[in-house]
Amino acid sequence: MDCSLAGSSVHGDSRVSDAVALRVRSGILEQTGATAAVLQSDTMDHYRTFHMLERLLHAPPKLLHQLIFQIPPSRQALLIERYYAFDEAFVREVLGKKLSKGTKKDLDDISTKTGITLKSCRRQFDNFKRVFKVVEEMRGSLVDNIQQHFLLSDRLARDYAAIVFFANNRFETGKKKLQYLSFGDFAFCAELMIQNWTLGAVDSQVDDMDMDLDKEFLQDLKELKVLVADKDLLDLHKSLVCTALRGKLGVFSEMEANFKNLSRGLVNVAAKLTHNKDVRDLFVDLVEKFVEPCRSDHWPLNDVRLFLNQYSASVHSLDGFRHQALWDRYMGTLRGCLLRLYHD
Amino acid sequence: MPGKLKVKIVAGRHLPVMDRASDLTDAFVEVKFGNTTFKTDVYLKSLNPQWNSEWFKFEVDDEDLQDEPLQITVLDHDTYSANDAIGKVYIDIDPLLYSEAATVISGWFPIYDTIHGIRGEINVVVKVDLFNDLNRFRQSSCGVKFFCTTSIPKCYRAVIIHGFVEELVVNEDPEYQWIDRIRTPRASNEARQRLISLMSGELQRKIGLKVLEMRGNAVVGYLQCFDLEGESGLVVRAIGTACTLDKLSSPAAFLPACNSPSKEMKEIPFNEDPNPNTHSSGPSTPLKNQTYSFSPSKSYSRQSSSSDTDLSLTPKTGMGSGSAGKEGGPFKALLRQQTQSALEQREFPFFTLTAFPPGFLVHVGGVVSARSVKLLDRIHNPAFVGIMGNTRSYKLLDWNSFNSDEPETRDAWWAEIRQEIKSHAKALGCHAVVGYSESTSICEEVCILSASGTAAVLNPRFLQDGTVEGCLEQRLEENLPAGCGFCHIPYDELNMPFPAHLTYCNNCRKQKVPDVLFTTIDLPVDATVIGKGCLIQARLCRLKKKAQAEANATAISNLLPFMEYEVHTQLMNKLKLKAMNALFGLRIQITVGENMLMGLASATGVYLAALPTPGGIQIAGKTPNDGSYEQHISHMQKKINDTIAKNKELYEINPPEISEEIIGSPIPEPRQRSRLLRSQSESSDEVTELDLSHGKKDAFVLEIDDTDAMEDVHSLLTDVPPPSGFYSCNTEIMPGINNWTSEIQMFTSVRVIRLSSLNLTNQALNKNFNDLCENLLKSLYFKLRSMIPCCLCHVNFTVSLPEDELIQVTVTAVAITFDKNQALQTTKTHAEKLLQRASTDNEELLQFPLELCSDSLPSHPFPPAKEHLESASSNSGIPAAQRAVTVEKASPMGEGNFRNRSAPPCANSTVGVVKMTPLSFIPGAKITKYLGIINMFFIRETTSLREEGGVSGFLHAFIAEVFAMVRAHVAALGGNAVVSYIMKQCVFMENPNKNQAQCLINVSGDAVVFVRESELEVVSTPQPAASCQPSCTGGEVTT
Q1: Contact at 8 Å (CB) between B978 and B1003?
Q2: Contact A78/B at CB under 8 A
Q3: How many helices, marked H, and strands, marked E, lie in chain A?
Q4: Strand B117-130 and strand B156-171: pairing?
Q5: Which of A322, B629, B820, B972 has the fewest CB atoms nearer than 10 Å to its CB?
Q6: Please, what's the b/e burial string for B460-483 (b: 16 or more CB within 10 A of its CB; e: otherwise)?
């Protein structure tokens, strides 16, 4: 089996003719003295083999036990990894969308838009959906479940966990404002959220533990509103942050001017999370309410970090504020996300 | 009642969804042996049922044990309608009947359906308790071992090589029974599979009986073939070489010390050949009706005719079952004066072996072959015309009544051919034929029977213990230096059977040798070879008019001599072009189709040091005085000379210069002479001997007098050598290479091309065929480029013409890598040139259009299995953990004995991968145990050919499935490799209009346990059982 081909044919990324052309360009004919016809038939062979393998790849543990092909374990792992690999461009298009028939119908558009072949789009989409279906109702860590049932590498399993998490919570990622974000950015956020905001974060014995956000927690977030609703508290918070950061921030004046807006934005995002609709818009809101204002004032990343650290920490010094734990759970994750989201 | 068969159905996995509503299956299993059936409980709603059944026990005769396969059917339970079959597993329990092979068959078997292919797997445990057979009239031959390997198996020693055994059984083909019109294709396929399984069991048992009669204990070089004669039935025939083998005691170290109690049960006196029970049972022993009747009465309950045919058959079967009587005859009266050797006493002193113990082969005379064209529906033997004539057309009803005669007819056909072979051998001054094989090609009602072998003089020491020690005066030559003895002519110089050119042996200078030697055997180990060998093929097509019956047969037999002649000429020319002087492993296949005949000869050319240096090829034109023509000729001549020179370099043929005085005999210019003697006989007695030595003409001179000859020369020159780093041969190993590394990879490739029927000429056809074969080879080279430097060994081409314009070529070969460093020393100097050559060849090739390749299918390459231990340990974390758990659970097995015996501890770690190779050995490894013969027959049919990826997709999938099933069976026997694997038949039929296709595949080989040489030292310490084998774990947890 030719590994160089394994990728393209398992992907279904290209038609046989394309693969042949690709191989011709790689100079293989000159190296081996083979004819084009030989190459063509050889490529066909590979495609046929992979076509037969595809069925097994749908449930990778089957690949381990099947008797039809004798594949050394390292090669098996490679095949699985290649088959479940996805394109950044594609995943950005479907991230957060419901993995339904409707979305599947839009694949041709995605294909034309991204330049990825429709066949490949279908495979990637089906992979997402398959993984989603299998782990949807399971207990235990999402990443572990994916790894166990699809035998993916740690890296890939984490990515899939993010995809599944996004699909389940239907976070909006397609807005124009969010286009500058990469899949990696979202995956990073997803991981933080899974770790801190889901049911599994408090109780590891619940169904869907890693998939669904902790509803109770989201309800409680309303309580944070007091931070901006109570004028005194807001002023106190601002002064604490300003005192601490004076002289340390290049954009101190902008920060000072914008503090209330920013704080209001962040707290309102939290308060709104009780509604499913607003959960979906989480990233839009974060970008609108925080990333964009800071960016327009040209905050350097380091200043953003200092600010956020101080902003979260100062709350502990607010005597009138009783929801310290809640604030930490919220802000801890959000701080990580925002820092990741803050770039051009 | 000498045997008890016990079967346990453990579990299933990956079953198909049979109930669309629940996406699940309610599976149960039927276990059938003979006429007894057991059922498991229905395991509701699961795709991974755990039946964990009780032991189903069948109490059966050992004849049945040998004949019948165990039949396991997995079904989906349906409350309201008929239960749906999911698929079947046939298990041949023969390997359990030898005393030293496996004692248990246990593992995951693919569940196979002839329409859907593999559908899940089932875990089965099978055991046999065999009681000592006290019946002196027994008809079973349990305990006789069978080997496909055509040499003495590696862990045995040949005490005596007894000789030829053959047998054939005939039955009606279920596909052509009237009932086939009303039953489903599935039922018909299954009936066929079952019948063939049954027939091969019966055949094997009968051969076993003959072996016991000859006081042997094993059959080596066992070759079983099916002739699908269509309307006139199904013939299963087998040939082999009976031997008395002794197990070498050395590998005992690997076997566990504790012997299982069950072993004693089935201990049959084995290594002591005179088995008192068997001696007394002659062919005339009264038989039991039940067991000797032909199978349909057993397998199909055709009540109407079966009961009486059973009876009517009985008295005849002794005769009908072939030449049992004839072969029984080491003691047959002999009228010959020369009591030269024990061989002469045998009716057919033939040996199917191709490699021999040292000293066995004394001289080799040359290839002998015979062909005969027969009409299937009219039996030529006058003795039977009366019987056959009247019933033939209505045979659907009463074929049984003359069925008993049919083997006799087929036997008579073969006997005729064998007789001919024998007389050819005698003409060459030889008393034996080695490397003997038989084949058929059938098209409609015409059948070509072919047999070929190598005439030889053998050392009687191995043949009959003591009796004829050293009676042959020629045996003196045993003292001659090794490596040339076998080349010396066995015939009388003054009374040569054909014009040949003799010289003194280049090696010993004492004996005469021919200038060219053709043989069907492997290169003897002690032969001195200069340079490397190479694959030489002659390919030929001849158009033939479509005709009916007798006219057709006549046309074919008229064509045959010409084909033979041309094939031979081609071989000879190519051999010269390669600057070599001997062919080994020659196999000439002539295939008959509706409107053409095809000939394909493959052999491995070598330069034998003992034989004289071959001369070049000269071209002569017929029309002198034509300047441009002359020029053309000289151009060609130059090209040929260049090619010869290049080949000499490529294959490293640098024979030492021979000083003039030694070459006493006049060799002004070496002349080519044929070593071949063949004949065609259209019907029974007409024998034409063909002189292939080109009359008086000097064969070295190719005359270009017409375009035909021009083509020939062209085709000579366009034959492309393999790309650099590749060598190929059709013998077991490549002569001249011996530093093999352990990486091997086997592959099978089937290619079907459709010819455009319009104005086909012989030339166009030849070219197409030539291109087809060349391209096949090229694509193999391409696929294997990562293994360079490597050698394609045992390249085996099979041609068939399934339909009018369809040519199907099947190739099986194995690629073995060899040590680069050592090879480099010799090839370094040529490397540069080779590269250049490769590229120019490429250009030449591009001229050939490939418009005809409508469909090509290909190979199922195995990923090269490397060190299993390493690969197992390199598993990624999770699966390894899972496995470890199951293995742990599996270890406290109740039956420690079977575990120990079925798989020696060392095998536990490596058993996960089952290697398949057409070779009789595994490079870098030692075979410690032969577990029995694998002989499987599968039919696959589809009614959705396009959806399954067309012909290629269909065949590709099917071949992969066949491999999977073979591997599963081997693994279940506790083996980790199949050696001497061969795909004996691959019959493909297609109906593109109906979107249908059907394919039959017959494979065989020897299941073995091997241990890597590198692991041998480690063996004594128990390996951490990180078995990646799926089979032996889950099942035994529950026992």
Answers
A1: no
A2: no
A3: 23, 0
A4: unpaired
A5: A322
A6: bbbbbeeebeeebeebebeeeebb
pLDDT at res. B270? 36
Tokens standing for residue B1035 = 């099942």
**How high is the pLDDT of residue B1030?**
31
Four-CA torsion B530, B533, B537, B538, nearest 10 degrees: 0
Average of per-residue pLDDT across B747-773: 77
**Residues A33, B839: C-beta atoms closer than 8 Å:** yes
Digit-coded pLDDT (tens) for B286-340: 333 332 223 333 333 333 333 333 333 333 333 333 333 333 333 333 323 333 4
Q: What is the pTM of this model?
A: 0.74
In chain B, whose CA is at the least distance from the CA of A73? B875
B874/A75 touch (CB, cutoff 8 Å), yes or no = no
Query: Chain centroid to CA A245: how far?
Result: 33
Calpha distance B590→B600 (Å, rounded): 6
Say how many Å lie between the first and final Cα of chain A, rounded.
Answer: 43
Cα B745 to Cα B743: distance, rounded to the nearest angstrom: 7
- Which residues on B lie below 8 Å from A78 (Cβ)? none
Whether the CB-CB separation of A146 and A135 falls below 8 Å is answered with yes
β-bridge mates for residue B98, sequence order? none
Average pLDDT of the segment spanning B10-30: 87
CA distances from B569 to B24, B174, B365, B537, B602 (A): 64, 43, 19, 11, 13
Residue A10's nearest CA partner among A129, B855, A19 is A19
If you write DSSP's letter for every residue of B73-132 in order, what string do you get? Answer: EEEE--SSSPPEEEEEEEE--GGGGSSSS-SEEEEEEEEEETTTEEEEEEEEEEEEEE--
Calpha distance B583→B576 (Å, rounded): 11
Confirm or reject contact between A143 and chain B (CB < 8 A).
no
B761-782 in b/e form (b: 16+ CB < 10 A) is eeebbbbbbbbbbbbbbbbbbb
Q: Is A144 on the interface with B (CB under 8 A)?
A: no
Taking the CB of residue B876, how many other CB atoms lie within 10 A of it? 17
Select from A317, A315, A66, A47 the least CA-distant residue to B121.
A66
Given a contact cutoff of 8 angstroms between Cβ atoms, the answer to whether B116 and B21 are in contact is no
- Angle in degrees, 0-180, between the axes of helices A36-57 and B762-783, rounded to the nearest 10: 50
Nearest by Cα to B964 from A50, A61, A69:
A69
pLDDT at B564: 87
Of B785, B860, B865, the CB nearest to A72: B865
3-state secondary structure A240-279: HHHHHHCCCCCCHHHHHHHHHHHHHHHHHHHHHCCCHHHH
The minimum CA-CA distance between B871 and chain A, rounded to whole Å, is 6
Distance from CA of B850 to the nearest CA of A (A): 8
Is B160 exposed, middle or buried, given 0-12, 13-18 or 19+ CB atoms closer than 10 A?
Answer: buried
Locate B594 and state its tokens: 């509706």
CA distance B121 to chain A (A): 9
Q: Which two tokens stand for residue B584?
A: 């080994």
User: What's the rounded Cα separation, in Å, for the pair B192 and B185?
Assistant: 10
Spatial separation of the C-alpha atoms in residues B432 and B430, rounded to whole Å: 6
Burial of A159 (0-12, 13-18, 19+ CB in 10 A): buried
Cβ pair B121, B89 in contact under 8 A? no
Cα–Cα distance for residue pair A50/A6, rounded to 1 Å: 8
> Do A38 and B960 lie within an 8 Å CB cutoff?
no
Give B841's contacts in chain A (Cβ within 8 Å).
Answer: 33
- Model ipTM over 0.85: no
> Looking at residue A209, what is its pLDDT?
65
Q: How many CB atoms lie within 10 A of CB B795?
A: 24
